């Protein structure tokens, strides 16, 4: 929930695809779909705990999305999510101002 709140503060639209609504969705689909129209950025985020591991379905889904030119990341913290946005082209400053 913390990741979602922080991304929404930046003006991102965050679609939560986690259980229980997942029953009709493809196996391996990431937890969050995030987009920001102004930045023209769209990313998929699989949220894991520090020790959480990807299932084979998740690994396969992320690999297929990347192969199709999409941005898909595994994140374990708000900082990871912000770094994913930066990597996808979002103009978010780091703590050093860069």
Helix-strand makeup class: alpha+beta
Mean pLDDT: 91
Shape: globular
SSE string = HEEEHEH
Order of strands across the main sheet: 1-2-3-4
**Model regions low in confidence, pLDDT < 50 over at least 5 residues:** none
Mind summarizing the main beta sheet? 4 strands, mixed
Number of helices: 3
Describe this structure in words.
There is one protein chain. The protein has 98 residues and is of the alpha+beta class. A four-stranded mixed beta sheet has the order 1-2-3-4. Strand 3 (41-47), helix 2 and strand 4 (72-75) form a beta-alpha-beta unit. It contains three helices and four strands. The mean pLDDT is 91. Helix content is 31%, strand content 20%.
Keywords:
alpha+beta
In short:
With 98 residues, the chain is an alpha+beta fold. 31% of the residues lie in helices and 20% in strands.
Helix and strand topology:
Layout (H helix, E strand, L loop, with lengths): L1 H8 L3 E4 L15 E5 L4 E7 L8 H12 L4 E4 L2 H10 L11
Parallel strand pairs: 3-4
Antiparallel strand pairs: 1-2, 2-3
């Amino acid at each position: 929930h913390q990741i979602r709140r922080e991304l929404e503060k930046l003006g991102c639209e965050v679609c939560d695809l986690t259980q229980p609504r997942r029953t009709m969705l493809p196996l391996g689909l990431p937890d969050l779909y995030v987009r920001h129209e102004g930045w023209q950025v769209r990313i998929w985020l699989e949220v894991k705990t520090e020790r959480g591991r990807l299932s084979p379905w998740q690994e396969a889904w992320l690999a297929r999305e990347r192969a199709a030119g999409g941005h898909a990341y595994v994140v374990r913290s708000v900082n990871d999510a912000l770094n994913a946005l930066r990597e996808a082209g979002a103009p978010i400053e780091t703590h050093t101002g860069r």
